[in-house]
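Suppose a colleague, Dr. K., hands you the sequence of a protein chain of 454 amino acids and asks what its three-dimensional shape might be. Before reaching for any lab equipment, you can write down a predicted structure in token form. Begin with the sequence itself:
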Amino acid sequence: MEVKYAKAKFVDVFKYSFGGLGSNLAFFLTMSYLTFFYTDIFGISSMVVSGLMLVSRFIDAFTDPVMGMIGDHTRSKLGKYRPWIIYGAPVLGVLVFLLFTAPDLSPNMKIVYAYVVYIAYSLASTVVNIPYHSLTPVMSQDPDQRTVIVSWKQGMGTVSQFIVTVLALPLVELFGGGKQGWAIYGAFIGILTTVAFWICAWGGKEYDLCDMEEEKKPFNMLHDLKLLMKNRPMLMLMIAFGTDVLANATYSAVNMYYFKYVLHREDLVAPVASAILFAGIVSIPLLPVLSKWMGKKKLYWLGSFFSIFPLVVMWLRPTAGVSVLMSMMAAFGFISKIPSNLGWAMLPECSDYAEWKFGQRADGLMSSSLTFINKFGMAIGGFIASFFLGLVNFVPNQEQTPAVLSMIVFLRFGMPVLGYVASLISMVFYDITSEKYAQIRSELDERARKGAGR
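The predicted structure, expressed as tokens, is then:
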């Protein structure tokens, strides 16, 4: 007997996808410009920035899984996950604005301000983003529609990427440039982030439901964490996804430095970003088709493998002509978008695996783990960039030494290659093939039928 899975309405999938806009606006903004903003606009040393990124991730190591478990155990009339999105979004929006505000302070107070605001931003991001990602398996039980849902929300993420990587510098100049331009742009992004998350919560209204009469299960943090640590596919996905994010975060953190100091062509930032962005958009509609054809595990591996080649070309020829640069970065944008999007589509498989193997789903905990590794990879990428630039005595707004230029090129192209190689290795040990997942779904459906027949 064919099982008919509960599916989400298209209009609700569309509204939910706005979470991809809200989530990625702040993500791309901090990943692409925060290091540059702190060193060249706010006047903080790159070594201080590297320390800030590292400290905040240690905090996330605790708060992210805790937020996932809190979401799993929340019961309210607004649902499990939606109240956190609804009330957390405006707080996150304000902190995005403060993150790109540069008040006139003493050197020591600048460091204090950066630490307080960035850590507060990171906590607010945790409170909103983990419940947002936890809604994906709640929206639909159909494995194929889950991939479609992820494609839609990642498609909205490309809108965020356009607003940030292509429009950021022109809009900052339009808003007055310098500290004023960045502050107004930060406020603009903060407002967009808040509204986008509210629309997302609206889309999940019919699906994020709680039985208020049901007996509340005890909150056992140790038991839930053991569930995660025993889930081998989830651990392998975290490593593969995290090293992919690390690859992208490292090159994004030094991207401005590459164009400013190596090429002396800041005018190319927006055109190259556009090439990466629009090539990535082309790959998004292909994701459900390709994953259904060859399986998510194989597609993830191939996407990571072929992402390496354009990076190697530019690593060897960092000052190649504009046509070579544009074509290589467009190829990278097309290919790398596949694993970066696919990780979220594989997340519900890991939740299904936990239910199949251990009898407990823990969608919030699984989502928090991937969200944490996403932020961890982004921060470590920023830390690596800032730390290694500091090691070679980078000084902003002047001609750089050959050692600094070589380091910028390595961080922009070489370090991401190492990240993708690590992804390839970890994905080999990801257990859930297409055949294995078919077995898991079949057995879960059989359990559900037996439970309904009692």
